[in-house]
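C-alpha cells in:
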C-alpha cells in the first residue's frame, strides 16, 4: 500500500459504458465494505436462528479476511494512514468485523478457527485507530466505531480498559495526529447542549459515529452517557436548531440535512434506560419523523441490536422548542414562532470565523411555506471546485451587505474546508435572550454589530419576526452599513422568476447591465457568476420585489420583498448559481437575487425591508408598507388584513414620537386591530405608549415588556419591574392573575385620570377591567 491516492481512467459497466476518472482504492474499499456487511449480517442471523448455513457463510469470509490481515502491519508513512486504507478513516468499512467475530465466537471456537490471529489483528487495528488520523477536525470522531469495536473484541481486560480509558478520559496526540478523548471532545467540539461545533450538516457524521461507539461501550458496562451528558444530548441536540421542516440551518460548508432518526433512536434508548423526563418529547419527534416517511423496521443491523422495540405511549404530543437560541461558535442567533410545517416561521443571522465557515458577513436565512425560501446556498459541490472558491464561499452567495463592491476574506481563499477569515459579529440586543421566555407571543428580534474587516466598514443588522395570526406573519430587516463609497444589500430566494413593482404595484422598467462584475478569484465578493443582470438605474421610490416559485400540480409559492426607498438608490436583479441547500426538486434552478445599491453610506438611510411569504396568487395579507429613517431611528408602518403595526428601531437613546405614540428603546411595535390598540411591545427600552396605554421601566435600566389589550382584560409580561398606565374606570382595586392565582396590585390615579400600576417582573399577568 502506498501513502497516496491516484486515479485511473476506467470504463463503467453501466449501459452508458461511459469512461470515468476513478480512484481504485475507493472502489476496493467499497466492495470490501459490502462483503464485510454480508459477513456481519450473516453472523447476526446465525446468532438469532442457530442456522449453521449462515455461520458457514460468515466464517468463510472472516477467516479469509483474518488470514490475510494477520501478516499485515500498519504502513509506516504519514500519520493519516490507516491499517487497511490509505486514510485511517477508510478503515471504517472494517468496523463490522469485530462485531461479526463476537456473534460467531462459539462457532469459530468449535471449528478450531485461528482465534489468536483475530486477537492480533484487532489489537493492531485498535492501535492504528488510536494513533492515526487527525485529532483537530471531525476525523478522529468519525473513526470511533472501528476503534471501540476492535478494542472491545480484545480478550485481555487490562488492554481493553486501557483503550476505553483513552476513549473516555485521555487524549493520545502526536503533532496533528491521534485522537481526543470524550472529555476533550465535549470541552472543545460540542456546545453545552450537544451541537457539534461545525456547520449543521457536519453534526450527523462525527456525532453519529461517536454515538455508535458509545452504545457499544455502554453495552459492555462503561457508563459513557451518564459520564458525558453532552454526548447524550448530542443524540437529540439538533432538535432545537431545526427549521419546522426538520432541516438544518445551512451556513458554511453545509448541506440541508435533517435530524438523523438513527441518532434519535439512540436518544430514546438511553432516555428509556435512565428514566430521563425528556423521553416523551423525543417520542413525539420520532412520531413526526415516522409521519414523514422514516421506517423503524428498516434501521439495519445497528437498529436491530440497539433500538428499543415498541415506542412508549405518549399522551402529550406538544413539542416545546425555545423561541430563540444561539450557536455561539458560529455567532448564529435564531428566532422561531411555531413549529408547524407550513405555518411555522423561523429566521436567523450569522457570521464568524470558524472551521468550515463561509465569508458571508452578517448572513441570514428566512423560512416560509414549508421550506427555507430566503436561503444560503451551502457548499458549492466540493471545497476545491472553482465555483465554490469563487462564489459559494464568498459574500455574493449570501443574504448580506457587500461594502465598496469588494467585501471578502482577509486572505485569498484557494480551497479546502479551512477557515475564511472574516471577523466575527457581536450580539447587541436580543429578545428573548437565547432559551429564555419571550414577553410577546407575536414579536421577537435580534440586533448584531459587525466590523467588515476587508473594507473597514461598520455594520449593524436588526432582524425581527412579527406574527399577525396563527397562519401569517412577516420578517423585518434593517441593515446599516457605513462604507462611504457604496453598499449593496443582497437577498437570494428560491424561485423561477423575479419581478419588480413600484408602490402602486406597477411593473418597473428594467435595463440590462454589465455592473455587479467586481471580482478577484477567491478574494470576494463573487459577483462575476451572476447572470441575466438587470437594473432600474437610479430609483428613489419604494419598490416591491416578488419571487415566484412554481410548484408542480400545486399553487405557486411567493415571497414579497418590500423595500423602502431613498436618495442614491439603485436596484438590480440577477440569476445566481444554483442552491445546493434547496429541496431536491429545485436544486437545478438558478437562484434569483435582488441587489439594492446605496451610493454613499447606508447608515442614516439604512436598508429597510419587510418580507412576507404565501402560497397562491394574490393570497398575500400585507396591503402596504412604508418606511422612513432619520437621526438613527427607522420606522415602518405595515398595513395588512390583520391590522396595522408601527415598528420602531433606534440606534440611539433619543426618543421617537408622533401625535399619539411614543417610544424610547431599541425595538418597539405598536399594533392596532380594527382601529383599536391591540398590543405594545418593547424590546430593550424604557417606555412605549399609545394613547392612554403605556409601559415604562421602573428605574433607568432598559427592560423587555409586552402589553396585550383585550376587551375585558390586559395581559402584561416583563422581565423586570414595570409601571403601566391604564384607562380603567373602576375604583382602583386592581386584580391580577398569574398561573391561576389571584392578587392585588398597588395603583394610584394620575392627573390624566389614568391608573398608574406598579408591577413586578411577571409573565402573562392578567389584569381584569371588570372588578
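Residues out:
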Amino acid at each position: 500500500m502506498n501513502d497516496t491516492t491516484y486515479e485511473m481512467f476506467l470504463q463503467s459497466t453501466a449501459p452508458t459504458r461511459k469512461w470515468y476518472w476513478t480512484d481504485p482504492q475507493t472502489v476496493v474499499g467499497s466492495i470490501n465494505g459490502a462483503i464485510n456487511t454480508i459477513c456481519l449480517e450473516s453472523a447476526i442471523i446465525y446468532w438469532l436462528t442457530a442456522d449453521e448455513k449462515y455461520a458457514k457463510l460468515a466464517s468463510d469470509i472472516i477467516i479469509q479476511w483474518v488470514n490475510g490481515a494477520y501478516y499485515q502491519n500498519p504502513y509506516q508513512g504519514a500519520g493519516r494512514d490507516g491499517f487497511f486504507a490509505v486514510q485511517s478513516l477508510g478503515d471504517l468499512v472494517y468496523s463490522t468485523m469485530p462485531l461479526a467475530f463476537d456473534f460467531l465466537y462459539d462457532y469459530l471456537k468449535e471449528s478450531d478457527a485461528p482465534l489468536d490471529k483475530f486477537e492480533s489483528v484487532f489489537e493492531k487495528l485498535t492501535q492504528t485507530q488510536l494513533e492515526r488520523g487527525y485529532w483537530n477536525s471531525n476525523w478522529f470522531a468519525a473513526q470511533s466505531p472501528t476503534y471501540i469495536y476492535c478494542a472491545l473484541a480484545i480478550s485481555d481486560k487490562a488492554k481493553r480498559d486501557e483503550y476505553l480509558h483513552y476513549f473516555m478520559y485521555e487524549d493520545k496526540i502526536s503533532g496533528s495526529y491521534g485522537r481526543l478523548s470524550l472529555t476533550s471532545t465535549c470541552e472543545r467540539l460540542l456546545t453545552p447542549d450537544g451541537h457539534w461545533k461545525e456547520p449543521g450538516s457536519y453534526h450527523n457524521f462525527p456525532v453519529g459515529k461517536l454515538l455508535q461507539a458509545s452504545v457499544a461501550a455502554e453495552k459492555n458496562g462503561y457508563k459513557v452517557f451518564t459520564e458525558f451528558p453532552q454526548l447524550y444530548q448530542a443524540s437529540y441536540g439538533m432538535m432545537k436548531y431545526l427549521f419546522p421542516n426538520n432541516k438544518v440551518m445551512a451556513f458554511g460548508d453545509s448541506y440541508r440535512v435533517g435530524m438523523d432518526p438513527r441518532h434519535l433512536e439512540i436518544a430514546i434508548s438511553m432516555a428509556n434506560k435512565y428514566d430521563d423526563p425528556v423521553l416523551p418529547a423525543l417520542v413525539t419527534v420520532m412520531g413526526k419523523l415516522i409521519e414523514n416517511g422514516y421506517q423503524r423496521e428498516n434501521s439495519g443491523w445497528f437498529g436491530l441490536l440497539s433500538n428499543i422495540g415498541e415506542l412508549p405511549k405518549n399522551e402529550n404530543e406538544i413539542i416545546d422548542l425555545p423561541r430563540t437560541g444561539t450557536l455561539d461558535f458560529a455567532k448564529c442567533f435564531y428566532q422561531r414562532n411555531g413549529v408547524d410545517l407550513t405555518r411555522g416561521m423561523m429566521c436567523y443571522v450569522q457570521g464568524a470565523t470558524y472551521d468550515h465557515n463561509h465569508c458571508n458577513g452578517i448572513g441570514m436565512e428566512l423560512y416560509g411555506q414549508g421550506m427555507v425560501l430566503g436561503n444560503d446556498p451551502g457548499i458549492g459541490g466540493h471545497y476545491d471546485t472553482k465555483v465554490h472558491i469563487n462564489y459559494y464561499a464568498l459574500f455574493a452567495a449570501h443574504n448580506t451587505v457587500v461594502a465598496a463592491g469588494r467585501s471578502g476574506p482577509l486572505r485569498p481563499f484557494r480551497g479546502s474546508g479551512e477557515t475564511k477569515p472574516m471577523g466575527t459579529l457581536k450580539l447587541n440586543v436580543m429578545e428573548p435572550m437565547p432559551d429564555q421566555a419571550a414577553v410577546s407571543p407575536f414579536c421577537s428580534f435580534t440586533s448584531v454589530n459587525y466590523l467588515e474587516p476587508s473594507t473597514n466598514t461598520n455594520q449593524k443588522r436588526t432582524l425581527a419576526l412579527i406574527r399577525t395570526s396563527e397562519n401569517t406573519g412577516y420578517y423585518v430587516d434593517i441593515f446599516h452599513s457605513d462604507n462611504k463609497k457604496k453598499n449593496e444589500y443582497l437577498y437570494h430566494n428560491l424561485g423561477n422568476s423575479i419581478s419588480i413593482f413600484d408602490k402602486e404595484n406597477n411593473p418597473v422598467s428594467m435595463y440590462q447591465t454589465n455592473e455587479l462584475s467586481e471580482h478577484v478569484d477567491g478574494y470576494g465578493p463573487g459577483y462575476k457568476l451572476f447572470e441575466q443582470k438587470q437594473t432600474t438605474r437610479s430609483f428613489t421610490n419604494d419598490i416591491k420585489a416578488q419571487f415566484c416559485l412554481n410548484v408542480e400540480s400545486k399553487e405557486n409559492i411567493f415571497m414579497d420583498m418590500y423595500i423602502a426607498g431613498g436618495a442614491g438608490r439603485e436596484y438590480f436583479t440577477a440569476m445566481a448559481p444554483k442552491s445546493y441547500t434547496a429541496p431536491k426538486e429545485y436544486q437545478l434552478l438558478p437562484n434569483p437575487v435582488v441587489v439594492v445599491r446605496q451610493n454613499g453610506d447606508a447608515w442614516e438611510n439604512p436598508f429597510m425591508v419587510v418580507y412576507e411569504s404565501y402560497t397562491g396568487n394574490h393570497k398575500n395579507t400585507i396591503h402596504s408598507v412604508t418606511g422612513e429613517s432619520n437621526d438613527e431611528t427607522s420606522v415602518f408602518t405595515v398595513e395588512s388584513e390583520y391590522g396595522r403595526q408601527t415598528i420602531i428601531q433606534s440606534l440611539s437613546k433619543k426618543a421617537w414620537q408622533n401625535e399619539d405614540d411614543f417610544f424610547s428603546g431599541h425595538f418597539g411595535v405598536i399594533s392596532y386591530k380594527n382601529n383599536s390598540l391591540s398590543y405594545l411591545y418593547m424590546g430593550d427600552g424604557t417606555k412605549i405608549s399609545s394613547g392612554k396605554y403605556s409601559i415604562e421601566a421602573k428605574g433607568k435600566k432598559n427592560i423587555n415588556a409586552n402589553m396585550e389589550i383585550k376587551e375585558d382584560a390586559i395581559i402584561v409580561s416583563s422581565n423586570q419591574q414595570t409601571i403601566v398606565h391604564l384607562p380603567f374606570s373602576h375604583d382602583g382595586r386592581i386584580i391580577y392573575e398569574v398561573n391561576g392565582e389571584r392578587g392585588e396590585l398597588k395603583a394610584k390615579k394620575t392627573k390624566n385620570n389614568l391608573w398608574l400600576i406598579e408591577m413586578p417582573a411577571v409573565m402573562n399577568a392578567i389584569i381584569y377591567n371588570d372588578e
